[in-house]
Amino acid sequence: MAKTNPGRFFEDYSIGQTIQHAVPRTVGAGERALYHALYPARHAIYSSDAFAQACGLDAAPLDDLAAFHVVFGKTVPDVSLNAVANLGYAEGRWLKPVWPGDTLRSVSEVIGLKQNSNGRTGVVYVRTTGFNEKDEAVLTYVRWVMVRKRDADAPAPEAVVPELAKTVAVEDLVIPEGLTFDGYDYDLAGEPHRWGDYEVGEQIDHVDGVTVEEAEHMMATRLWQNTAKVHFDTSARPDGSRLIYGGHVISMARALSFNGLANAQMIVGLNAGAHANPCLSGDTIRAWTEVLDKAETSVPGVGALRLRLVATKGGAPFELRGEDGKYLPEVLLDLDYWALCPI
Amino acid sequence: MAKTNPGRFFEDYSIGQTIQHAVPRTVGAGERALYHALYPARHAIYSSDAFAQACGLDAAPLDDLAAFHVVFGKTVPDVSLNAVANLGYAEGRWLKPVWPGDTLRSVSEVIGLKQNSNGRTGVVYVRTTGFNEKDEAVLTYVRWVMVRKRDADAPAPEAVVPELAKTVAVEDLVIPEGLTFDGYDYDLAGEPHRWGDYEVGEQIDHVDGVTVEEAEHMMATRLWQNTAKVHFDTSARPDGSRLIYGGHVISMARALSFNGLANAQMIVGLNAGAHANPCLSGDTIRAWTEVLDKAETSVPGVGALRLRLVATKGGAPFELRGEDGKYLPEVLLDLDYWALCPI
Amino acid sequence: MAKTNPGRFFEDYSIGQTIQHAVPRTVGAGERALYHALYPARHAIYSSDAFAQACGLDAAPLDDLAAFHVVFGKTVPDVSLNAVANLGYAEGRWLKPVWPGDTLRSVSEVIGLKQNSNGRTGVVYVRTTGFNEKDEAVLTYVRWVMVRKRDADAPAPEAVVPELAKTVAVEDLVIPEGLTFDGYDYDLAGEPHRWGDYEVGEQIDHVDGVTVEEAEHMMATRLWQNTAKVHFDTSARPDGSRLIYGGHVISMARALSFNGLANAQMIVGLNAGAHANPCLSGDTIRAWTEVLDKAETSVPGVGALRLRLVATKGGAPFELRGEDGKYLPEVLLDLDYWALCPI
Questions:
Q1: Distance from CA of A123 to the nearest CA of C (A)
Q2: Which listed residue, A160, B81, B279, C197, has the most CB atoms within 10 A of its CB?
């Protein structure tokens, strides 16, 4: 009996299947410090216990994207080891902060399957939920990936394509229990701009850039226990390059967006996301944001901003697609998320 | 009086000498997180407090190899600063888990000395023991190294070569207090293979590979406060390369062995080990395992697997030595250890 | 309204101005571990809770330079984003240890302004103080930087150049509450040399070297939330190189100085400092020390050593300036500090 995990192929998924992903993980002060070493993260609510307490929380939670990466990383051996492409995200919601000492595990349900016309690959849709050690859901999102078939002659399953919300509705955003911006200190947060200062359609160039290195992205990707070979092994791709985990680009771009969005404190919804082009060591990542929408939430003083966050490895800010409608070659990421901001 | 440490030379050792190694170290959540960032470590008992508690422990201990590296690192300034080669390990036993907050220190006793026939070097055997802040021994092992003489004309000491056990006897393995695999969750652990599923002689190719970088191995080696110049200083070796600490290869290979040995949870014995060839930045480390032996332990449900873990930087799996009996040039590590596995 | 921070220009400062720097930061076990991974730090009082407790402290504090970097990092967006050069330090005093769990913030007061004769730049002097979450000052120092003018035609302010002490007087050094070296364990500390063993004028070559890598210095600089573009972005300087944060060189040199100064345990005063030449990835950092002064302190058994710590990227030890009085091109750092040492 072969004991190593070859990953699942398209035929191995069926609608309704539930996958308990392996290797629970306790996170804490070490993951928090590493997150700050790997990304220029400065949002105060994740940096300072005192600031978080002034916002009604018990302490600084783990960065919302670190929580995402831990939950996501667990799914890789079961969902994307044989993936050809990571196609999209939808209906992502952060349900509870992750505190130092929490132990996270992930469960996925297969909610869609569609074989491609070439007969060699298919698209798998999973809804993944992360749980803490009290079995409370902390995060849920849908992801779909293109996966190889083991056997091109295997019959196609009945196509099921889930209907997914274009965006998470504001009323479905979960505001962390106790959160208040009533005593918010804009000096300590780093910028004076409130929710009311942002206009739909406004674009912000985040100005700063970071040239990325092999050692950094591998440390980050391992930290989240993401095992995809292409990130680590120069023999896994024909050109000998290591593909940088898309989540590394997400975190880098979000951290860079502090400069102009310092008060977009907490990510609570993930509407959509595309990894437009591969990122490699030596690329200099920059970011810009477009305000897509804004809304008040159920908590007085807490507003929500819907933001398009674009990461690039060159080119001018605010350019996304070419005349053919395709992403420009220098665009790395197009992410659509909801963040909470003092009104 | 010169104040810097020139390291000890062969003449500076005598049989029975006890060396109190410097710089005790408190380990905790930060070292745990860094271990996960530096190695693709996924054994659940070290990753999750909740999983470790379900196995009867108070919390996830520090990875057994991290404990080894901390204890080992302290010995370098006293034992191997002038070492020409790290020749072997024997009689290694983990005696107590290392918990976050523990402070470790190391003590070595010189148990063997043998001058080489060239008169310029000699072999020093030390038995090193790591202690926690309660002066409880947590780890012990024998290591022997080839050390330069300060003065080739100094007389040779009487040769003393200790008799060392070929393997640690199963009855000498210490099972951590309280450890039980009765409620073991194979889904969360990541693989279904039990102790009974492994056969003596079975070989496992761990499939994955990691291409290593300078920044990573230096961070790891510093984390263990290992001060050997060859790991850090490009002017220390004629070709300008930095030699990667052998322990980095051990940890990388052990982490890679998760894929096929996810349930070989805790290392409790180190029977032997050889760093067959040097590892340099840019090498892609892979690993394979051969099951050398298996035995039940004093604790019902807890089995022991004796495993040969081989790390390579190329070549085919399961090839170890050439026709001349020497290690193949692509073999980095040949390690013989005992791990605990649910029966 | 542009929302990104362009940094302040010379005209934006006025005497007496107080700047509340943004993004408080909680530090802990993660930062401690990362400090050990990034630098070969071995001073026992920062490495071991048990050792620190034997010296009368509650636990091992965060390394004094890590505390400095966190406090310093917060000032960068407000003080040195448009700086041409970091000119000097003075009157630095560590006032309280920083403990794991402390939250640090920084406040600066502008105490000097002097436009340069070229009309395009000016020198800004700030006194920066770091506070913990109890609003206790933990560190204070003066720094002066050369900053660009936004508009060369803007009128020059009245020149104010503060009178700064050449060195911090011994009676102004703050000995951490409870500190005692009465039960000091020289074996565990790593060297036998006491305060009485050092002579004014004595020079120590710290022997070891570390070749630095891009990934390391960027991780360190991000960890301190220092946002200066030149450290991260290869497009920020004409030659595509990333300038290494001067504080990275300070920490590397101080850690290397363990070899010969293992008992110069705690830094309590910063008298002066110059970043003599830029440090780039690939440079091999070495260090040497000259004992400039020594004094007893108010606490029996606790002596102070005034030390010149020089970091180089080549050349011979103990050479600092050329015949023209300028720093030799291989000198990176000339730092003048007070450390506490058992008498």
A1: 36
A2: B279
Task: Classify the C-alpha dihedral B235-B240-B245-B251 as positive or negative.
Answer: positive
Q: Is C214 on the interface with A (CB under 8 A)?
A: yes
Q: Minimal Cα distance from B234: which residue of C? A: C211
Q: What is the ipTM metric for this complex?
A: 0.96
pLDDT digits (tens, 9 = 90+) for A17-76: 999 999 999 999 999 999 999 999 999 999 999 999 999 999 999 999 999 999 999 999
The answer to whether the Cβ–Cβ distance between C44 and B34 falls below 8 Å is: no
Q: DSSP strand E in chain B: where?
A: 18-20, 25-26, 83-94, 103-115, 121-131, 137-148, 203-205, 210-211, 266-275, 284-296, 302-312, 331-342
For C158-190, how does the pLDDT look when each residue is reduced to its tens digit (9 = 90+)? 999 999 999 999 999 999 999 999 999 999 999
Question: Where do the DSSP E strands lie in chain C?
Answer: 18-20, 25-26, 83-94, 103-115, 121-131, 137-148, 203-205, 210-211, 266-275, 284-296, 302-312, 331-342
Kindly report the backbone phi and psi dihedral angles of residue A86, in degrees, each rounded to the nearest multiple of 5, phi listed first: -95, 110
Work out the end-to-end distance of chain B between its first and last CA atoms, rounded to an integer number of angstroms.
60
CA distances from B231 to B236, B242, C204, C207, C286 (A): 9, 5, 23, 15, 15
Of A214, C218, A37, A237, the residue nearest B213 (C-alpha):
A214
Helix or strand or coil: residue C290? strand
Residues 6+ apart with CB under 8 A from C153: none
Distance between CA atoms of residues B143 and B91, nearest Å: 9
Residues of C in contact with B220 (CB under 8 A): 37
For residue A290 the two structure tokens come to 């477009």
Q: In the predicted model, is pLDDT for residue B1 greater than 60? A: no
Count of A-B CB contacts under 8 Å: 132
Closest CA to C263 of C163, C200, C196: C196
Alpha-carbon distance A256 to B33, whole Å? 24
Digit-coded pLDDT (tens) for B77-116: 999 888 888 899 999 999 999 999 999 999 999 999 999 9
Contact by Cβ (8 Å): B245, B333: no
3-state SS assignment for residue A86? strand
Phi-psi region of C33 (alpha: psi -120 to 50; beta: other; left: phi over 0): alpha
CA A239/CA A230 separation, integer angstroms: 11
Check residue B231 and report its DSSP letter. Answer: G
Beta-bridged to residue B118, according to DSSP, are none
How far does CA B263 lie from the centroid of its chain?
19
Instruction: Give phi and psi for A187, each to the nearest 5.
Output: -60, -50
């969902």: which residue's tokens? Answer: A79
Residues 103-122 on A with a CB inside 8 Å of B are: 103, 105
Reported residue count of chain A is 343
**Residue burial B227-254, b: 16+ Cβ < 10 Å; e: rest:** bbbebbbbebeeeeebbbbbbbbbbbbb
Query: Do A226 and A248 form a contact (C-beta atoms < 8 A)?
Result: no
In chain C, what are the domains?
A: 1-27+62-164 (3.10.129.10), 189-343 (3.10.129.10)
Pick from A19, A26, A39, A211 the residue to mutate for testing the B interface (most B CBs within 10 Å).
Answer: A26
Question: Whole-angstrom Cα distance, residue C98 to residue C114?
Answer: 34
- For the beta carbon of residue B135, count every other beta carbon within 10 angstroms: 7
Q: How far is C213 from chain A (nearest CA, A)?
A: 10
Q: Count the neighbouring beta carbons within 10 Å of the beta carbon of residue C183.
A: 9
Q: A29 to chain C: which residues are within 8 Å by CB?
A: 28-30, 100
